[in-house]
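Hi support team,

I'm opening this ticket because the web form for multi-chain structure prediction keeps timing out on my end. I have pasted the exact lines I submitted so you can reproduce it. The total is 820 residues across two entries, so I didn't expect it to be a heavy job. Is there a limit I'm missing, or should I split the entries? Thanks in advance, R.K.
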Amino acid sequence: MKPIFEKGGKLYWLHSTVDAFETFLAVPATTTKKGAHVRDCIDLKRIIILALIAVCPAALFGVWNVGYQHQLAMGVTGTFWANLWPNLWFGILKVLPLYLVSYIVGLTIEFGTAQIRGEEVNEGYLMTGFLIPLIIPVTTPLWMVAVATAFSVIFCKEVFGGTGMNFWNPALVARAFLFFSYPNQMSGSNVWIAFKKGETMLDACTGATPLALDGPAQYGTGWWDLFLGTVPGSVGETSTLCILLGAILLIWTGVGSWKIMCGSVAGALLVGFLGNLAGATDIPCYMQLLYGGFAFGTVFMATDPVTSCQTECGKWIYGLIIGMLCVTVRLFNPGYAEGMMLAILLANTFAPLIDHCVTTTHINRKAKKLKAA
Amino acid sequence: MSQNFVLKKGLDIPVKGISELRISNAKTPDIVAVKPTDFKGLAPRLLVREGDPVLCGSPVIADKTHAEILLTSPVSGKVKTILRGDKRKLLAVLIENDHDFNCVEFKTPSNAEEVRQTILASGMWPWLVQRPYGIIANPELTPKGIFVSGFSTAPLAADVDFCFADQFKFIQAAVSALAKLAPVHVSLDACNPEAAKLNKLENCTLHFFQGKHPAGNVGVQISHISPIQKEETVWTISLLGLAAIGKVLVNKKVDLTRKVAVCGPMAIEPSYIVTMPGLPMKDITGQWGTLADEARIVSGDMLSGAAIGPDGYLGFFDNQVTVIKEGREKEAFGWIRPIRYKQFSTDHSYFSWLMPWRKYDLDTNLHGGPRAFLMNDAYYAKVLPMDIYPLYLTKACLAGDIDKMEKFGIYEVLPEDLALCEFVDPSKNYIQDIIAKGIDLMLKEMA
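Hello R.K., no limit was hit. The queue was backed up. Here is the completed structure from your submission:
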């Protein structure tokens, strides 16, 4: 079977695709050629799949929450257990197409570019493709998801050389593309809750997110609902609890940097607190951690090892910038209810500069020390 | 001034196959190879022809740039074959051993210049390796210091006490002689400073290091004792080199005999043999049957040794032969299995870090496919106890950016220092090769 896909074979042009499936099913029999004769058994597939598992609680909750928000908006009553399956099923029907579009479009481009370059297909898109449906409103039209995914994979990743070479987080670029190109479908009060054809929301409800409402008006006591995630929002971003579970796995396995997460939380608390002092907002600073996409962005997007800072000191600065910028946008920019996406993208842009400053300072300090010695 | 260093970063790879402390074979080989390929920076000029008689200590190869740098024969006998590769590149001179050990006699030196001349004439100069770049020391230079690592932390490394306990007087003689050329610094294992009585050495400064591999690498030790800066040179020499030079100074004869650890998961009865550099591997693996085809035979350690194969010859600087299984088997869904009990990983997504007592049958499988660097610098720095950014240095080498290579510490490292970064790399890049190419570029540009 294989020789036709090898060099000189008829179907050599498909070799990257065959190789991708083959290496997915089994660790290849490739041996080391030079240098270290033995290797650690960790590989990027393992690291990416771990990150993916970490996102799973938030994703599963998001799927259920899509159904739950629909239930609330339609005024359906009943216990949690009675509505569990209908809510999940409704969520699956709405979210699965987003996943299909994201993966089909993204992976097609990934496989295509791998073939053109003659390289192995990189597993990086498995993570990006998993994140895109979680950070957009569930009602986003599928063609828009397709266009945004294609734009992000081609212009944010492949033109720079593929996974590992990009300096912006591709999932966030897809969201930013949608946000600026189709603002009506990405913000406002009508995009966060999915309906079946012909259904309309009860008058007593509003589909706006807590951030847009600027307070816990609709959601009772507020922080508990926000912590659990039973509020409208992008698919995966609402449940801080599920995101925390993911954070624990990421920190435990070392895939995500705790320094970035802590820096971001500290930055958000600081600006939130200053906002309180200055009278810019009445919202307690700790609530900033529960609102909107802050938790999701901090744990799963900011910690992307490719686009975040490389140096340890840089990670603290990078995290702080994200947290501070996010809350600054929330408090002082009336145009945008949420600032996490822009905060991370801006921090991504400056990450190499932060690293440059950190490494240069380190080198200069070392040179000074050696001169003195 | 003596110093103590505790290095927290590093990794001791838990691999099976450590050599038992016994000698299983002490026969000198019938054929020995003198290999110019063991020496970086040597442009070899052949001094003998096939059939020429040689004595132990007779010059066989000279350097074209510095004609006084010689490689000499470790045995007496006759030049049997001259092995050449592509474009007539000189690979090795094979010498038939007559087992008589008729030796060239050298004078005992009394001053620095005579020390230099004796070491050069006896062919022992190539033991001195010059940093930056890891080339043969330039005899015209005076280095900032001569650094010796008195222990090895490499996987399955030969036991210092077992190999050098009877060599103290030679090592001391060499240290005293080299101290006439430059200050000598010897680094010892803080946990076992009395190994081979090296803590009794005189005419040198002793330093003590405690830590996992690569704490025993001389490059790591230099970076803590006195980091190499631009336009500085240091020389390094191993205990093997000191013992060999010491024998020339004390016995007036070249004697490269050494205890070599035959080790590794695939080695049959891992133990020590007494032999010399240039030993044909067939002498070791001849009795192993088909095993030799399934195994990779490495002269040196499994992280930075050279794969020489069953037809190769023991390297000049090595006292270890590592035998590892070629990992040519696929592992179904290997990467997604929650537990891979037989595999070793430092990563917390596996559980080998919870079982520090276990030893593993490591093989040569790459365990993945090559990718761009995805993880950040700290992932690599955790196994490199040096004050540099390993990933930045690697990327500077990849880009061929001389300025950045200098800034990120190319003068301080040799590929072997970053071997563990290569080991843990989930992107499966050949980091040592990238660094080696960076060093070659520096050599070319700085020439």
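A quick check on our side: Residues 257-373 of chain A form one domain. Let us know if the file doesn't open in your viewer.
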